[in-house]
Design goal:
By secondary structure, this protein is α+β, with helices and mostly antiparallel strands. Helices cover 27% and strands 25% of the residues. It has helices spanning 26-41, 127-140, 151-166, and strands spanning 46-48, 58-61, 73-84, 87-91, 101-105, 108-114, 120-126. Strand 6 and strand 7 form a beta hairpin. It starts with 25 loop residues before the first helix and ends in a 5-residue tail after the last helix. The structure holds zinc ion. Zinc ion binds next to helix 2.
Length: 171
Amino acid sequence: MIYPIVKYGDPVLETKAQPVTEFDTPDLHKLVEDMFETMYAAKGVGLAAPQIGIARRIAVIDISGGEGPPQKLVLINPEIVRNEGKQVTEEGCLSVPGFREPVRRGARVTVQAQNVKGEVFQAAGEELLARAFQHEIDHLNGRLYLNHLSALKRDLIRRRIRKLAKDGEWT
Ligand SMILES: [Zn+2]
């Protein structure tokens, strides 16, 4: 099932998501499957549960972007355990469509998370994957990439979104 993606302005995107405590349930398996389906349909490389209106600490990532073999990653209750170096690259978000801005992030990141069965694992990534880890975990903490921009730039984007909303083009 493909969920509609929640857009900037919905409070769920700025709410800290709750940890998952029950694992390996049919509901959790289905939700993770639906999140991948929703992410692929939107041509994204990552999706966090708050982006479909569910304030739980679940994110899915596939940086293959539909090219080559899938590299599916499910992160439940993820935490960053290591963050090294710096990268500045343009970043966008499925919840803030039509906007892209350079964002400063760590270059090499290791996360610790649980899988759908509740097993703890670590995953390390560089460049795009490191960026996806940080972007998605931000979502679970109620933060958007806009929070990393200068106040000036953020206000500019907010004003443009407010105008789009007023014109009925931000739903
Ligand atoms: Zn996002």
